[in-house]
Design a protein that fits this description.
alpha/beta, 6-stranded mixed sheet, 3-stranded antiparallel sheet, 21% helix
Length: 177
């Protein structure tokens, strides 16, 4: 198998959009203390960059759900493999996701976090792939980019644990040699 990557969203475009998203979050929360809950592993770079642009005091926590394994297609079954450590009760939680596609992961994570009685819960996703949505009514409160139905890597997103460290978002093309 031969793999190639074509740039979909440049490093500069990401940097600019993350700053714009932070401005909107700063406005909406007006210096309210926030708990950023990063959906591991894909959203870690996005959360790090976004958090440095927020004015409010922020706590970090992490949660991990799996629906992909090592394949390019989601299995449809979502399971939480690492839960938050902080007590979510009465906290303003901003769930940071790398990509919103089928909606299954966000639906599972939202339901799980809401069961912990936060003061509020919003979703911030770097990427949105609405063509793949299988769960009606699932949207992010803050979205970086709407992208076509292509398999993307880079800026935290991977294929079989590779390509996370790319500074841009690229379309992964897999072909026969």
């Amino acid at each position: 198998m031969k793999e190639s990557i074509s740039i979909l969203i440049s490093e500069e475009a990401i940097r600019k959009r993350v700053a714009e998203m932070a401005d909107k979050i700063n406005h909406d929360y007006n210096n309210e203390r926030l708990t950023l809950v990063c959906a591991l592993k894909g959203a870690i770079i996005f959360m790090a960059d976004l958090s440095r642009k927020l004015n409010a005091f922020v706590d970090f926590d992490f949660i991990s759900a799996s629906s992909y394994g090592d394949s390019a297609s989601p299995s449809g079954k979502v399971q939480i493999v690492k839960d938050m450590e902080l007590n979510a009760e009465d906290r303003h939680i901003l769930l940071i996701e790398d990509i919103l596609d089928t909606g299954n992961t966000i639906k599972t994570l939202r339901r799980h976090i809401l069961s912990k009685n936060p003061a509020s819960l919003k979703v911030c996703s770097l990427l949105d792939k609405p063509e793949r949505r299988m769960v009606a009514g699932i949207e992010a409160d803050y979205t970086g980019f709407t992208i076509p139905d292509k398999f993307v890597v880079g800026y935290g997103l991977d294929y079989a644990q590779r390509y996370r460290n790319l500074p841009y978002i690229g379309v992964l093309n897999i072909g026969e040699e």
